[in-house]
## 1
Amino acid sequence: MKKYVVYTIVAAMILSLVSCGESGSRTAAAAKDATPKDAAATGSSALAASLAATELAASPNGDYSTMGTLAEESPVIDGIYTAPVEYKADEGKYYLTDLKRRFRVGNFNGKTSKDENFKPVYSAGNSIFGDTEEEADQELYKGFYLTTEIGKIRDYFLKSFGVDTQGHTLFIGYNDGKEDGKNAYGGVGEDKTYSTIYVGKNVSFPCRDILAHEYTHTIQYMHHFVQDVNEKGSEVKIDEETVTISEGLADVFACFYTGKWDLDFTPLGNGVAHRNAANPSGNHKANIHDEVKSSEKEYGYNYATCISRAAYLMSESKAFTKEALQSLWFDAMVSLTAHCKYTDLREAMEKAAIRAKMTGKQKLALANAFDAVGISHFDTAAKYNGDIEVAIYDHENNFYDDYKVEIYRLIKDSRDNGATWNYTTTFVESHDRNKPEPLQLHLDEGTYRILISDNSPGQKIVDYTIAVDPASGKRLIEERNFDVPDSEDAGPGDSDGEAEPEDSGDSDGEAEPEDSGDSDDAAEPEDSGDEAAGPGDSQGESEEDGGDGESSDGFQGLWITFSSMGTLYYFDGGKVTCYSKTDYSAPVSDRHYTKKWTRNYIVEDLSGADGPGRAAVLESGIEYRLIDGSPDVLDCYFLDENNRYQLSGSGSLMRVTDYTIDDLILQ
Ligand SMILES: [Zn+2]
């Protein structure tokens, strides 16, 4: 092997790192770095003692491919610290290198962590590190400790989630002089061909919590989502919510790895103390994402605790096994993208829960935890101007004239023990409509829930959560197909309306439109031209459900939406009933639901790109598609004005298995 081959690799490094400390007060955290000779004098088997005669367990015969007997379990034996090495025969040197895990270890000697300053840790002539003065000057115990501890962290991620550095080398550097040597970093090279963990020269050892945090950053980088977050001090504008999520998730996995919620960052030496997911405010960190902290500069670190607190609350719910909880967070983390926001994290968690086929109880625990830290769907309500026009049409596109509009104000108010948001729902006004024209509303700034319900019994109800913001230009709430299809009266005379098309999107009925952005994913033009029969024909022509209500059409049972925990659907042999809970101040686990309507559906087979599976087709033009490979998720589609099916982004339903319709307390 060529001399300086390691240097050659390192010289190719272009660093892109995340800073993981905080620039706090410069209290000197003098890491009393004992020299190897000092340690030898102590003779104990503690970490420092391992400096003494540091003997590597590599085979001494010069086989550089040998990993050594190493060090997975007990790196310190009788004061002898063992670690994997690579022997380079042409140099006659042993390098502190873990070929199996692809770690290379270097010392920056107090210089800034630039490529050319990375000096691989070595022993010349024999496998005893530190038996010459020159070797001892490398502060070997730091390299050995990092190799061992990061090795365990890497093994944890590999065993738990099946990932490591994905075939790349992880460069582990210590005695970094950057930021007065009081910080630690985890990242990757710019082209993502290698990973890095660098520890400052004034960071004190051991520093396990910090290393687990930094290793998580390397995973994040390899999986993309923080690659646009730049090194501290960079000119590039940092997206603070993304930083917070990145830092929060690094803390979450440090908690998972160490098995404790209170992370100790004091070894950084830069004034950072603890971040405790169980009690963030005890260390002056945020319990809830919108608590304003003193230093905007340290936004990401101060708010990171609201992310780890959500993990803590989920754990406390006892709804998850340890493995399930950790897998859920990992799955969500690696599905995030650059510039992600708090709500993206919640959505990623919800989707991960669906993929993991989690139960309704688990999904509720997830929702509760995120609501408690203020990452709520309420906070992402679509913005509307205070002057709102509600335009309701029948299936012939005439204005509809028999519906009610109820408006509730949502106020995010008190917190339980300072840690959990509550919402108060206050009735504002109600409009009974019997005129075929749009309703004009004026609402003050705030967040509202708007319920629009057909006065014909058992018919459509639509449920909006909106934020009134005078700066918004959005004015129109528009709903179609708001009538009973078989009462054919009006001709196609289409009294149209001035209704601007500005906010198409959620014209679906059952699905909560509260988080707008629906009409994505253009659906196929499969167009069901057939005027789906009237309410009489619950039998449908589907083979499966030949009569008995308990048939196995796959839809049978309770379903719930994520976007609004206030709505449940019960499918039962050709009938679907919607139950709603209008009291948002009640906890989401409260089962007081009111029956809103019942409608018939027929089952049609799905094939082609969608299938195999089935669709429950409602006469309103809405259909719920159930794919065989994903039996616990119903995707809601609605017919748009061009008679094409569109996926309703907020309308997916998840099967509830924890309780049945009989458990609902109906009012
Ligand atoms: Zn960090």
Note: The first strand starts at residue 15 and ends at 19.
## 2
Amino acid sequence: MAITFYHSPNSTSECTNAVFAELEYSHGAPLCERVNLSLEKGDTRTPSYLKNVNPSGHVPAIVHDGVPIWESSAIAMYLGETFGEKYQLYPALGPRRGEAMKWIIWANITIAEAGTRFMDSTGMGSPLPGREGGKGPADVERAKNDLKKWIEILDGALEGKEFLLGEEYSLADTHVWTFMRWMTFMKVDMSEVGNVRGWMGRVGERPALKKLLQ
Ligand SMILES: N[C@@H](CCC(=O)N[C@@H](CS)C(=O)NCC(=O)O)C(=O)O
């Protein structure tokens, strides 16, 4: 069973990197071969990458036994099902599994949409192809308000809980945490979401993630 993971530091593929870090910590050995790509140099836009790995030209992507799998949410759920259940890092089939999937997809669709608008409208957007960046103050305000609304939902869901699914940590925490770290890099105001701050601290204290961030 061979997995190749296509990664670029400080990009969306940090989600997958964190998921692998948790799994590999429990597994006690690498689960994949990491290939580091440079987005600036266009490594994800080569004919070979587009043909064999990800036609969208994005990281993260994994190729497992010759099968390309892309989209960080799909990868998190796939790795959770394939390896995570065994290490109590992903729920068994059933409503808890559905809950984990809900948070993973929510981060990718809802948080990322507003986060990307915030990044672009504030001019923090990356200079990659197709990114315009720098829009007006009204766009910044709208994106900021949307993020506040979504992060408050996360805060409410964490009320009285250690982790997203309750007492048990799961890869849904890992995945959503990487999106919240992106929020802190963008200096999104977290002063009023104490549950999120506490949870970020607990997740960041996980040995696997501490090691990853060293
Ligand atoms: N929805 C995708 C987003 C992936 C994505 O946008 N990746 C960016 C980096 S953050 C990328 O690879 N960009 C390279 C490029 O556009 O050339 C996912 O979650 O996997």
Note: The pocket of glutathione is lined by residues 11-12, 39, 44-45, 57-60, 71-72, 108, 128-129 (CB under 6 Å).
